[in-house]
């Protein structure tokens, strides 16, 4: 009888840690409470963050649209680059760089610095790699990101650009946490999004963002709106800095 009691005690000692581990794993497996899953716009993914449905990512098949000749006229990309006030020694990150449309405009301005071109699609990175090789660009570094991280060194970036990409982040809370780590204390985020407040902007609703929505999400991530330059034809040019 005594031996049975000892065996039972040993069984409990072994079993309890396993139960705790299983409960812990089950909690980790739960979807983040930050997100809500429900049907919505056919151009969305059915995942919502702070009242906004996340849009489908534009695939590499859209490279021609990114490089369209009308883009300068429609978006005034030259003014956008001027808004960033790029210095020669700046370290800049273009998140969701795509074909590198903005990357290769910024690189000559930061000639003594570095431009990180971050994307999650291998085809986009290969397109930029071909351009780097063709034009012998020395200060562009290609980074393969993922849905939860920009994969940049901590405290490495002076200016961070996101052009019509933030609204497509599958996991915006996690992405903004990784961006916060990569951005230097006095760094700036330039968030470019099609204006949801303007029905005349010829872009699908789920691919637009309002200033109010952007401020709500970025404040939750530890940032404040420094200014909205509001000088682009279709897009907001919102500048965010870390809360001090």
TrEMBL record:
Gene Ontology BP term (one): methylation
Signal peptide stretch: 1-26
A Pfam family annotated for this UniProt entry: Methyltransf_31
GO molecular function: methyltransferase activity
Presence of keyword DNA damage: no
Coiled-coil residue windows: none
Keywords: Methyltransferase, Signal, Transferase
Start and end residues of each Methyltransferase domain: 87-212
SUPFAM superfamilies named among the record's database cross-references: S-adenosyl-L-methionine-dependent methyltransferases (SSF53335)
Protein name in UniProt: Methyltransferase domain-containing protein
Classification of source organism: Bacteria, Pseudomonadati, Bacteroidota, Flavobacteriia, Flavobacteriales
């Amino acid at each position: 009888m005594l031996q049975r009691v000892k065996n039972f005690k040993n069984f409990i000692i072994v079993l309890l840690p396993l139960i705790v581990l299983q409960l812990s794993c089950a909690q980790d497996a739960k979807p983040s409470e930050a997100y809500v899953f429900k049907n919505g716009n056919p151009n969305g993914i059915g995942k919502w963050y702070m009242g906004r449905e996340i849009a489908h990512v534009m695939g590499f098949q859209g490279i021609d649209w990114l490089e369209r000749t009308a883009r300068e006229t429609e978006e005034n990309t030259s003014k956008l680059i001027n808004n960033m006030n790029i210095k020669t020694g700046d370290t800049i990150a273009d998140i969701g760089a795509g074909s590198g449309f903005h990357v290769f405009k910024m690189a000559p301005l930061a000639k003594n610095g570095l431009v990180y071109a971050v994307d999650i699609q291998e085809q986009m990175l290969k397109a930029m790699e071909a351009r780097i090789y063709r034009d012998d660009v020395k200060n562009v570094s290609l980074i393969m990101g993922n849905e939860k991280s920009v994969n940049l060194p901590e405290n490495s970036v002076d200016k961070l650009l996101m052009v019509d990409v933030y609204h497509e982040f599958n996991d915006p809370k996690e992405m903004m946490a990784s961006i916060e780590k990569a951005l230097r204390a006095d760094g700036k985020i330039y968030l470019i999004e099609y204006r949801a407040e303007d029905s005349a902007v010829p872009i699908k609703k789920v691919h637009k963002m309002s200033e109010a929505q952007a401020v709500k999400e970025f404040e939750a991530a530890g940032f404040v709106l420094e200014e909205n330059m509001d000088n682009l034809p279709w897009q907001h040019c919102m500048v965010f800095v870390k809360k001090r």
